[in-house]
Amino acid sequence: MDTRRIGDVDVSAVGLGAMPMSIEGRPDEARSLATIRAALDAGITLIDTADAYHLHADDVGHNETLIAKALASHDRGRDVLVATKGGHLRPGDGSWTLDGSPRHLKEACEASLRRLGVEAIGLYQFHRPDPRVPYAESVGAIRDLLDEGKIRMAGISNADPEQITLANEILGGRLVAVQNQFSPAFRSSEPELRRCDELGIAFLPWSPLGGISRAGELGSAHAAFATIAEARGVSPQRVCLAWMLAKSPVVVPIPGASRPETIRDSAAAVDLVLTADELAELDAA
Could you tell me if residue 180 is left (phi over 0), alpha (psi between -120 and 50 degrees) or otherwise beta? Predict the structure, then answer.
């Protein structure tokens, strides 16, 4: 597995987005554990999660607990960088709410530490800006957690270029990752990708294949990806991830998965080298 850099850590060039294993439509635990094991067996060393990846109000952190269980039972578990997030909440009725207050973020981090069973979280990310709280205050809480050694690296998610610049300043140049939505159908994060490229900050596209309900339709929705996939004898999803990887060495896609076969296919994208003509065709699609 090829590697890329997040802060001072080398991680697999493709990570695992674990959200589908804990929200609506989630599989049983056995299949989820098998999916995480398949990811590790394929060489994946980055798993993305969040305390808000759960269904009901009484199972907050379901995804973090699941990951901790899977890593504890695998001989490569210690090699994995777990990236989790705080500041987004799910009351249990299917809705999403926000709390970017410093108090909540610090309490959420402590809870994530307990669920993951670690002394310090590898990468902790502010999940989404809260319009009720000044952005500088939210990121300031992340800085405090970094200074206190509760987290080893700091990131942000769902940020615009100005917020990336501000966060990096507040963190004293220690911002290592930005996680934004980016896919063939959602390309408006190109400015954020360029800003990360300029700063040497990892850019982690979430829902890179279009999201849980649309990933299987990628080829039918975007003909160029299907055409190249057929010519190469691979899936459109693999072509999509290879296209993203070719955009910049700071890109580390985190496709979601809840089946072993899908994460194995995603991991194989690192071996697919697209030609300049193919990349131009996909860029224009």
Answer: beta
Residue 194: CB atoms within 10 Å: 14
Structure-block tokens of residue 131: 């319009």
- pLDDT on residue 211: 83
* pTM exceeds 0.90: yes
Contact by Cβ (8 Å): 119, 113: yes
Give start and end residues of each alpha helix (H) in the chain.
Answer: 29-41, 62-72, 102-116, 135-147, 161-170, 190-199, 218-221, 223-232, 236-247, 260-267, 276-284
**Which residues of the chain have a pLDDT value below 70?**
none
Q: Which of 18, 21, 53, 153 is catalytic?
A: 53
Contact assessment for residue 21 and residue 27, using Cβ atoms and an 8 Å cutoff: yes
What pLDDT, in 10s, does the model give residues 237-267? 999 999 999 999 999 999 999 999 999 999 9
Is-catalytic flag, 53?
Answer: yes
